[in-house]
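Feature request, filed as a ticket because there's no other form

It would be nice if the structure record came with a short human-readable summary line next to the tokens. Right now we just get the raw output. Example of a typical job, pasted below so the devs can see what we mean:
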Amino acid sequence: MTDEHHASQAFDYDPTASSLSGEVEQGVMDELLSIRSSIDNIDATLVFLLAERFKATQRVGVLKARHKLPAGDPGREAAQIARLRILATEAHLDPAFAEKFLNFIISEVIRHHEAISADHERQAARPDSSR
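Raw output as currently delivered:
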């Protein structure tokens, strides 16, 4: 079994947990739980999509470190933000929220790229780095 599978088994998630249980009609509670089930599935998908995105950005970070490129690329970041704002508007999502979300992701990516670069420099500075 994978570590991820073990982690998901170790956490007892109750999709029916609610402070509203017993306080609203059962039909309303059933509909609420049904909608929340969809939200839970979307949240899980978002986590896996973000993991895939960060795997790709790690590869970018390694490439940048190897070629001594800066961790950030302000031109790329501005273009991505503009693109995401348009996509958000088309999807009826608040573009300001989409921009904040992307800015958070970008700051994490840059932090990872800086760490990769520093690690790459440390490895290059080692006397036994030719192995």
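Something like this underneath would help us a lot:
Helices lie at 3-10, 26-66, 74-90, 95-125.
The two ends are 33 Å apart (CA to CA).
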